[in-house]
Amino acid sequence: MKRAAVPRARRRMNWALLQERLDALVATFDRRHLSPDPLERVLAFTDPAEREIGGLFAAVLAYGNAKAIVASLDDLFMRMGGRPAAFVRGWRPARARVLAGFRHRWTTGADVADLCAMLRPALATHGTLGALFAECLRAGEPTVREALGRFVDALLARAPDLPRDAGVRHLLTSPAGGSACKRMNLYLRWMVRGGDGIDCGLWPAVPASALVIPLDTHVARISRFLGLTRRRTQDWKMAEEITASLRRLDAADPVKYDFAICRLGILDHCPSRRNLHKCAACPLLELCTA
User: Do residues 158 and 118 lie in contact, with contact meaning Cβ atoms separated by under 8 Å?
Assistant: First the structure.
């Protein structure tokens, strides 16, 4: 009697092959494949201070169509005189009029003004956001989960009279509520990782080993295809599960795979359903459970 085929989803994970193929993708998807991406606008700054503050604005607005995000950032940074860090350090309520009329989907100029009002005292006290985040770290915590929550709380504490329904609260997401915090984890990736020509590497006090993958629809879908997670809900638990799987490939820098995995989806190399032409060319085909 012919033996039944083993369902693809139950195949034993070949971690060595997965590492080999993902490392090859990391080498393939370099900075030449960045566009369109909000990180382009962050890397356009040469001053580390401008990258740090411009990076936060770019990350919190990183929702929706990539080209629309870049266009919104161009508008915002133009209003800020091309120097978001200088704009924030010199923030005063009268400057809100410069932001009037700005809009990125449901984020308004008033939301950006609220964020500027939080960032100015944070920078005045700590010098950089990196120094503030380092203060939020605690020894023995395996990931940035708790530190990110403290970081967001520290910023929101600068605006004690902020209404509960203020739009800026949706920009500064915290793991405390279970959110995947895709945009905040993206910001941390940009600030912490470096040396590959993609991320900025401005916060050496934060270990790359503690980062959690920025979870978007592409990363979630492809990670399920590869067996990196079995979860269906895109929340913090899924992000941590995927990161834990990637940590088996590189414990010191698990999130280095984020850019390559995400590009597979953004560039439509990995379709949501099997496509004979596209799937045949994929180096991950042997590992895919789709």
Answer: yes
The pair of structure tokens assigned to 83 is 């120097």
pLDDT score for 11: 62
Exposed e or buried b for every residue in 236-257, given b needs 16+ CB within 10 A?
Answer: bebbbbbbbbbbebbeebbbbb
pLDDT in tens, 118-164: 999 999 999 999 999 999 999 999 999 999 999 999 999 999 999 99
Contact call for residues 260 and 26 (beta carbons, < 8 A):
yes
**Spatial CB neighbours of 101, under 8 Å, sequence gap ≥ 6:** 109
Sign of CA dihedral 80, 192, 228, 259: positive
- pLDDT for 5: 38
User: Using N-to-C axis directions, what is the helix angle for 129-136 and 182-192, rounded to 10°?
Assistant: 110
Which residues lie across from 156 on neighbouring strands? Answer: none
Whether 136 and 150 have beta carbons less than 8 Å apart is answered as yes
